[in-house]
Amino acid sequence: MVPVVDSNQVPLMPCSEKRARKMVGCGKATPFWKKGMFCIRLNIEPNSRKTQLIAVGIDPGSKKEGFTVKSEAHTLLNINAEAVTWVKRAVKSKRMMRQHRRYRKTPCRKRRLNRKHCSIAPSTRARWGWKLRLCNWLSKMYPITTWIVEDIKAKSISGPGSFSILEVGKHWFYAEIRKLGELILKQGWETKVLRDSLGLIKTTEKLAEVFEAHCVDSWVLANSYVGGHAKPDDINLMCISPIHLHRRQLHVFQFVKGGIRKPYGSTGSIGLKRGSLVIHIKYGLAYVGGTMAGRITLHSVADGNRISQCIKPSDLKFKTYNAWKVSNERSRT
């Protein structure tokens, strides 16, 4: 099913691939990509703006997460997304390097108050912010009415009267999701009851990119609201991995030969934002990486592997900004 939006980018009910090709062929629609998802934009007024109930089931996880967009008639999309896990290590390294610089015999400013202090830890905010970005992306392609989330529980380990940072993060996420539509929370045992009633099995291989890892639960959650199926009608996956951009640092962590520290990190590469999708005259569609000696590095969109390190900027055609890698997988069942 292909997402459809009108001329004002308002999402409508999706259509089949056959109908989308027919509308594009006769000029009634224009094809475009929205961060790895093929969509069409109507050039005419739609015959009807009536929409069905569309729900999104979300199965949070520490390493992988499942998202399912479903209506009563069709499973529109299954997403297996990697979680953001590197922020805690990055913040720790940043703090350590700044503390070390203050003990050197070099001019430096006085220590100031922590201006980045907030109610949510950076690592927790990054994890739940990543989920929110995916939800905002889905809401721009489908007329979603309801979000069903498996409510996770986290006990505090600091003693009575304290709280868990995970609980703070999820409540912030729930408040933001309510701005997009109705929010329904399900407990973990409720998800298991729904899954067992349909005879579905969840694999213990949580890191596997298969439907049975996380999307089986997200599908069950969405189906519990819209109904329509006793078994999954589509188990194909869209696997999404966030692109890890290294922010600008004062220098690399280790000295190089000669005792000189080289500058490290940036989000731009010779006028192009890193992660942007481009077309190369030889390698086709790829995304922008780092730079070296005035040349740009290209990476594969499917797996992120490096394609080449010596690409001229003049050989690239910019397509769109991008924040994650997308690949399609088929479940083993």
Throw out a few tags for this protein.
333 residues; alpha+beta; Nucleotidyltransferase, domain 5; 3 domains; 7-stranded mixed sheet; 5-stranded antiparallel sheet; globular
What does it look like?
- With 333 residues, the protein is α+β, with helices and mostly antiparallel strands.
- The strands form four sheets. A seven-stranded mixed sheet has the order 9-8-5-6-7-10-18.
- The mean pLDDT is 86.
- The chain is built from six helices and 18 strands.
- It has helices at residues 17-25, 87-101, 122-139, 165-177, 188-197, 215-226, and strands spanning 2-5, 11-15, 29-34, 37-42, 54-59, 64-71, 75-82, 146-150, 182-186, 236-242, 268-269, 272-273, 277-280, 284-292, 295-299, 306-311, 316-320, 324-330.
- It starts with a strand and ends with a strand.
- A hairpin with a 2-residue loop joins strand 3 (29-34) and strand 4.
